Structures are given as structure tokens and as C-alpha cells.
Amino acid sequence: MKKILVVAAASLAFMGAAYAGTLEGVVKSVDPATKTITLEDGTAVVADDAVTPEALGTLTAGAKVKVTVDDSTTKATAVEVAK
User: Fold this and answer.
1) How far is residue 49's CA from residue 60's CA, in Å, rounded to a whole number?
2) Residue 57 DSSP class
3) I need a surface site. Which of 14, 47, 71, 73 has the fewest CB within 10 A?
4) What is the pLDDT of residues 40-82, one digit of tens each?
5) What is the pLDDT of residue 39?
6) What is the CA radius of gyration of the chain?
7) C-alpha of 34 from chain center
């Protein structure tokens, strides 16, 4: 019985873990004031504190990007220019 409780508790702990998804697209616009990146398909994501203002400043309209999004907060945790 103790094993079942330990496994159940461990499972619940992992359920709270953050999951990340990836978006790829072409930048339509970047608003540094709100840290919002809008892609040409209309998708808009807000960058969290892990994405620096300097990184946002390097993004330009027309750039192909890969955006990592935290599913629990829906914020971008990483943005990189795709090659």
C-alpha cells in the first residue's frame, strides 16, 4: 500500500511540471514594450523574462523564427532565428 501511495504522489508531482511546445513562423511584428511577438499567421505570444530585450531587438519583420512556448503559462521562453 505504501508503494502505491508513493507512486501516486510522484505521479501528481510530475503532472504539475511545465511542458513546452514549439512554434515556427515568420515574424510580422515585435512590440518591445509589451514583449509581444506576432507571426504572419496571426499567432501572438508574449515573451517571459527568459527572453531578453536584446533578443527581442534582433527580431525583424520577415525573419523566420522558432519559438518555445511554456504550455502552462503560454509565454515564450526562447526565441531563435530559424535557418
Assistant:
1) 20
2) H
3) 14
4) 999 999 999 989 988 898 899 999 999 999 988 899 999 999 8
5) 95
6) 17
7) 15
